[in-house]
Write a structure and sequence with these properties.
By secondary structure, this protein is mainly α. It is built from 7 helices and 4 strands. Helix 1 runs antiparallel to helix 2. This is Transposase IS701-like DDE domain-containing protein.
């Protein structure tokens, strides 16, 4: 894997040769349309690292589409056979305090919203956007840390907080 190559492009090449599945084409079309700049991620990896921060983020986004429950299951998955790396890379990335998860989610949401807005024909539709940054304590060993935060109302340090965004058109 070359740092200058694009993970989604490599997936498209692989599936174009081996399978003409509509599902992977839909996933790659949407992911190709979302542009995340490295300054939005907020963290920089060493030049000798195998993957860039953006590539690690793209692999994490692909986890649900390849039925990967967590980073520990990555190496035995089909995606793990295409892009070989160890689970520690994902854990280090997810635990990096310099990564601005809120900026990433906001950037992705803005791009998806603009695509949906262009496709919507009726301008009078009711639209609702919900951003939820709920303080939930860690509930088990399978929970991945998204970021370390403090709950100011409760005066507690929490291990993780889920970040969600929803959009509905009525």
């Amino acid at each position: 894997m070359n740092k200058n190559r694009y993970i989604i492009g490599e997936l498209q090449e692989f599936f174009a040769k081996n399978d003409s599945s509509k599902a992977i084409n839909s996933i790659s079309t949407i992911m190709n349309s979302i542009r995340i700049q490295s300054k939005v991620i907020g963290s920089v990896k060493n030049p000798n690292c195998k993957f860039t921060c953006l590539q690690v983020l793209q692999l994490l986004v692909l986890f649900p589409f390849f039925s990967i429950k967590n980073a520990a299951n990555y190496s035995s998955s089909a995606l793990g056979k295409m892009f070989v790396c160890h689970k520690d890379m994902f854990y280090r990335f997810m635990n990096d305090g310099n990564i601005s998860w809120r900026r990433i989610i906001y950037s992705v949401f803005r791009q998806v919203y603009s695509r949906v807005k262009r496709r919507t024909t009726l301008k009078s539709d009711i639209r609702c956007v919900i951003f939820d940054d709920t303080d939930l304590p860690k509930t088990g060993f399978k929970t991945e840390k998204i970021g370390q935060v403090s709950s100011y109302p409760m005066s507690l340090f929490l291990d993780s907080t889920p970040l969600f965004s929803w959009f509905t058109e009525g």
